[in-house]
Amino acid sequence: MKTFECGTLVPGCSWHTRADEEAEVVRRAVDHLRTTHGEEVIRQSTIEHIKERIREEKPQPLAR
Ligand SMILES: [Zn+2]
Description:
Blueprint: E1 2-5, E2 16-19, H1 22-37, H2 44-53, E3 55-56
Antiparallel strand pairs: 1-2, 1-3
The structure holds zinc ion.
The site of zinc ion has 7 residues, from helix 1.
């Protein structure tokens, strides 16, 4: 599972997402930047910044 927290890219934003595939996390993050932060043009460098901040999330055992 991959996870991305927007606050690592846009200070103060608490939005985050997770998905199985890095590509899906990037897609959702780009969608979020467009709709929430008004980024109409997503540059390649922005994509790279998102990828740099994606972290691998260990599966959590279900509570109880
Ligand atoms: Zn955000």
